């Protein structure tokens, strides 16, 4: 067992030395791989950060039903009983027009405003909390409520939140798509670099085989090379994404301040960084494995 | 022990390199393999080392039937065999020392012990003072001896040499033969092929003569 570990340790250190001995070529390779990782990674972080932020906002969508100015108490009662029995309504509150005016005056510090008006310009209103937040359900509910007698207008207060969550969903899907596309790219790029290395070291491989090297002996240095390449490019991609965040955050903060909000992109946490390293390692080893297996199969055929 | 039991080898294209050959070589024996070019000497050596597989018959090396062995097991058979190739098959981008290190790396020898072994093997073939040189700077005879050092560094029980004295002058060739004899004297089974029989006859060892894939009488 110790012997086996020594062999692997030897291969691992030698593969790392091999990368370090050709700094320029290795760096170009790593840059290519890390760019492929950094793009979906940055998008992931952006979507995650905006989701975190939007989750903290009070974005429970509400519908507000404004009654006609000349609606009678009987009309109000009718709407109220409809709301009480409607399956798509999670809860509701009635806002009496007199209270609404008082609240408006209190909020804006314009006490006595109503004295300059001919009566109360505000309508009676209901604030409805929908049971379901699905877009179709909300649209349907809005339509149904608009159709009730003596209802002037039904406003959907959180339409923008709804749109934001749709956009975020799109962002998530884009991240997933990009992630998969670049994962495939990572495998292919590694496959190619390892294939080039195999070609460059073909004599060594053939001679080693002739004097008793097993397939796993042949494969091992290439797999370790790919492993290092994957891990280093993941770290580099992490660095790129962190830099991007570092640059973007002051700009975002300034933008958010205009809306009285706080918005900052977050960096990877330890778990996510670990996962990133694991995925990068797995993908590059897969690429190297494809390349070595292909070569060994060809060598076998001779 | 090496045992051939009705072994034939036909290459793709229909060329019969060996035809129904049976013989055996005891442990520790030194045997010469003679015959003109194309007689099947190289093929025979390739069958012993598992580089090629017999088309029919059994090739038994160190009590293992190579004809029945899975391809993935062949490398481990080869690790007990030392091979001196006709065209040397050296790594020209590595030093003399690293070339001899290769078989020990493959077996997974401890690095410090390995360096000692490599120097002992280089000393044996008289190349110890060239361990840092690159093979390309060596003469033909020195390259041949480097190949021998690599073939014996892991102390194989069988040593195969394909035309080791080809392209060498007679004095040098005799040197090389003496080297093989010294391995034979420490118990290694040695099988050497050559098309020039004059070298072999001086040694009084068994000679297997081949002609067109069969024993020549």
Automatic annotation (TrEMBL), chain A:
<dbReference type="InterPro" id="IPR003838">
    <property type="entry name" value="ABC3_permease_C"/>
</dbReference>
<dbReference type="Pfam" id="PF02687">
    <property type="entry name" value="FtsX"/>
</dbReference>
<dbReference type="GO" id="GO:0051301">
    <property type="term" value="P:cell division"/>
</dbReference>
<keyword id="KW-0472">Membrane</keyword>
<keyword id="KW-1003">Cell membrane</keyword>
<keyword id="KW-1133">Transmembrane helix</keyword>
<dbReference type="Pfam" id="PF18075">
    <property type="entry name" value="FtsX_ECD"/>
</dbReference>
<keyword id="KW-0131">Cell cycle</keyword>
<comment type="function">
    <text>Part of the ABC transporter FtsEX involved in cellular division.</text>
</comment>
<dbReference type="InterPro" id="IPR040690">
    <property type="entry name" value="FtsX_ECD"/>
</dbReference>
<keyword id="KW-0997">Cell inner membrane</keyword>
<feature type="transmembrane region" description="Helical">
    <location>
        <begin position="24"/>
        <end position="47"/>
    </location>
</feature>
<comment type="similarity">
    <text>Belongs to the ABC-4 integral membrane protein family. FtsX subfamily.</text>
</comment>
<feature type="transmembrane region" description="Helical">
    <location>
        <begin position="222"/>
        <end position="245"/>
    </location>
</feature>
<protein>
    <recommendedName>
        <fullName>Cell division protein FtsX</fullName>
    </recommendedName>
</protein>
<keyword id="KW-0132">Cell division</keyword>
<dbReference type="InterPro" id="IPR047590">
    <property type="entry name" value="FtsX_proteobact-type"/>
</dbReference>
<dbReference type="InterPro" id="IPR004513">
    <property type="entry name" value="FtsX"/>
</dbReference>
<feature type="transmembrane region" description="Helical">
    <location>
        <begin position="174"/>
        <end position="194"/>
    </location>
</feature>
<keyword id="KW-0812">Transmembrane</keyword>
<dbReference type="GO" id="GO:0005886">
    <property type="term" value="C:plasma membrane"/>
</dbReference>
<dbReference type="GO" id="GO:0032153">
    <property type="term" value="C:cell division site"/>
</dbReference>
UniProtKB/TrEMBL annotation, chain B:
<keyword id="KW-0029">Amino-acid transport</keyword>
<keyword id="KW-1003">Cell membrane</keyword>
<dbReference type="InterPro" id="IPR027417">
    <property type="entry name" value="P-loop_NTPase"/>
</dbReference>
<dbReference type="InterPro" id="IPR017871">
    <property type="entry name" value="ABC_transporter-like_CS"/>
</dbReference>
<dbReference type="GO" id="GO:0022857">
    <property type="term" value="F:transmembrane transporter activity"/>
</dbReference>
<keyword id="KW-0813">Transport</keyword>
<keyword id="KW-1278">Translocase</keyword>
<feature type="domain" description="ABC transporter">
    <location>
        <begin position="2"/>
        <end position="216"/>
    </location>
</feature>
<dbReference type="InterPro" id="IPR003439">
    <property type="entry name" value="ABC_transporter-like_ATP-bd"/>
</dbReference>
<keyword id="KW-0132">Cell division</keyword>
<comment type="similarity">
    <text>Belongs to the ABC transporter superfamily.</text>
</comment>
<dbReference type="InterPro" id="IPR015854">
    <property type="entry name" value="ABC_transpr_LolD-like"/>
</dbReference>
<dbReference type="GO" id="GO:0006865">
    <property type="term" value="P:amino acid transport"/>
</dbReference>
<protein>
    <recommendedName>
        <fullName>Cell division ATP-binding protein FtsE</fullName>
    </recommendedName>
</protein>
<dbReference type="GO" id="GO:0005524">
    <property type="term" value="F:ATP binding"/>
</dbReference>
<comment type="function">
    <text>Part of the ABC transporter FtsEX involved in cellular division. Important for assembly or stability of the septal ring.</text>
</comment>
<dbReference type="GO" id="GO:0005886">
    <property type="term" value="C:plasma membrane"/>
</dbReference>
<keyword id="KW-0472">Membrane</keyword>
<keyword id="KW-0131">Cell cycle</keyword>
<keyword id="KW-0547">Nucleotide-binding</keyword>
<comment type="subunit">
    <text>Homodimer. Forms a membrane-associated complex with FtsX.</text>
</comment>
<dbReference type="GO" id="GO:0051301">
    <property type="term" value="P:cell division"/>
</dbReference>
